[in-house]
Write a structure and sequence with these properties.
Blueprint lengths: L13 E2 L10 E2 L8 E2 L2 H15 L3 H4 L12 H8 L6 E4 L2 H12 L8 E5 L4 H13 L4 H4 E4 L10 H11 L3 E7 L11 H10 L3 E5 L11 H4 L3 E4 L13 E5 L46 H17 L1 H20 L6 E3 L11 E6 L3 H10 L2 E2 L1 E3 L3 E5 L7 H15 L1
Parallel strand pairs: 2-13, 5-6, 5-7, 7-8, 8-9
Antiparallel strand pairs: 1-3, 4-10, 9-10, 11-12, 12-15, 14-15
Bound molecules: pyridoxal-5'-phosphate (PLP).
Length: about 400
């Protein structure tokens, strides 16, 4: 399969962490932190050199002037998430973006004040929505609805989510779902849930931390009001990299609703007139606050160029095959020791498989790490692994499965 894989050589464009013996690790942790593209350093170096050479003039006279530097990422980001360029911007970090967007999109009233999230959503999302509810004078005990799977099941059924929205939608102000759940790896039926939410007059937003760069997205057509994602997982932008944000075109000129403002969201033609009155830019860029970190954007450019060359559809085809292969190998093992909680259908998952271990899972995870197999552990019992099509091979998956089987024993 590796010999026939048209994307096999893309792997050579990334650095792999090494084992004690100097071998490449079997890196299955791209759902947590993506690998460094080998070109990332030169992109950063270039900006450091421009800064040394030009000082403040770099804003306008660097090879890639810093003033509009974030726009170097706009087309590629839009293509990756299926959006129009004016609907996306790279700025801040994920949780910051969620809060900023909530200012516009979470405007609770006594009749409609609830937020719907998935049970066990990533803690930062839970804290964000709880704090937003409190900030508006409501109580999470009454205003937060958490989706839970049916008894005995690990993943939510899309039809149950829709039923809940149909029943309770009139009191729900905002639905925030992870496009792909961080623990189980379940991908939700985003178009259906978005439609169900909109039918009931709810705002629909997506946390795509585990979706962007993992599964093809069609945000414009799917139609959520907003989405936000980080760039350090499947997007390989580096630790703490600048995040992405989508605001649907229908809100591009939402001037009438108050938003938190900063100068980088101000009409760029007049930004340096230093006018006292804020006039936001049209589209997602109007939500920017500050000038972005160029040094953090530079490595993301290196990665996004690789995405542009490979194309998310080709990556997805390989991803389905790689993850399917991993699942096949795991299912050949002693299944009394673990269960795979990620859905079986490839339409309901991305690259990640979540393996729930019955005993001593943490030890197993540590042992594998000692042997150079890098997945990660989520308390209380889940070992997460993702075969990332940009840089993982079928051989990685095979070698992982062999070591996993031995460690199980
Ligand atoms: C689903 C999800 N949401 C939010 C976050 C928080 O991201 P940040 O620290 O970039 O705000 C993470 C981080 O891993 C995540 O996985």
């Amino acid at each position: 399969m590796d010999a026939r894989d048209p994307l096999a050589r893309v792997r050579e464009r990334f650095y792999f962490p090494k084992t004690k013996d100097g071998e490449d690790c079997i890196y299955l942790c791209g759902h947590s932190l993506g690998l460094q593209p080998k070109t990332a350093r030169s992109y950063v170096d270039q900006e450091l050199e421009e800064w040394a050479r030009l000082g403040v003039e770099g804003h306008f006279h660097a090879k890639h002037p810093w003033m509009p530097y974030h726009r170097l990422l706009t087309e590629q980001t839009a293509a990756l998430v299926g959006a129009q360029p004016s609907e996306v911007v790279v700025m801040n970090s994920l949780t910051v973006n969620l809060h900023l967007i909530f200012v516009l999109f979470y405007r609770p009233t006594t009749e409609r004040h609830k937020i719907l999230i998935e049970g066990g959503a990533f803690p930062s999302d839970q804290y964000a929505v709880q704090s937003q509810i409190r900030f508006h004078g409501f109580d999470p005990a009454q205003s937060l609805i958490e989706l839970t799977p049916r008894d005995g099941e690990s993943c939510m059924r899309d039809e149950d989510i829709e039923t809940l929205i149909d029943r309770q939608g009139n009191s729900i102000a905002l639905i925030l779902l992870g496009g792909v759940n961080y623990v189980t790896g379940q991908a939700f039926d985003m178009p259906a849930i978005t439609k169900a939410g909109h039918r009931k007059g709810c705002v629909v937003g997506l946390d795509l931390a585990h979706g962007a760069g993992n599964i093809p997205l069609h945000l414009h057509d799917c139609g959520p009001d907003f989405a936000a994602w980080c760039s350090y997982k499947y997007l390989n932008g580096g630790p703490g990299c600048v995040a992405g944000c989508f605001v649907h075109e229908r809100h591009a000129r939402a001037w009438e609703i108050p938003r938190f403002a900063g100068w980088w969201g101000h009409d760029e033609k007049n930004r340096f007139q230093m006018e006292p009155e804020f006039r936001p830019m049209v589209g997602a860029e109007g939500w920017q606050l500050s000038n972005p970190s160029i040094m953090a954007l530079a490595p993301l450019r290196a990665s996004m160029e690789i995405f542009s060359e490979t194309g998310i559809d080709r990556l997805r085809a390989k991803s389905i095959s790689l993850t399917g292969y991993m699942e096949f190998l795991l299912r050949e093992m002693d299944s009394s020791r673990f269960t795979i909680v990620t859905p079986v259908e490839c339409t309901r998952r991305g690259a990640q498989l979540s393996i729930r271990l019955k005993h001593q899972g943490r030890n197993l995870c540590n042992r594998l790490a000692d042997e150079g197999v890098m997945g990660d552990w989520r308390e209380p019992d889940t070992f997460r692994v993702a075969a990332v099509p940009l840089y993982n091979s079928y051989q990685d998956v095979y070698r992982f499965a062999q070591r996993f089987a031995v460690a199980l024993q």
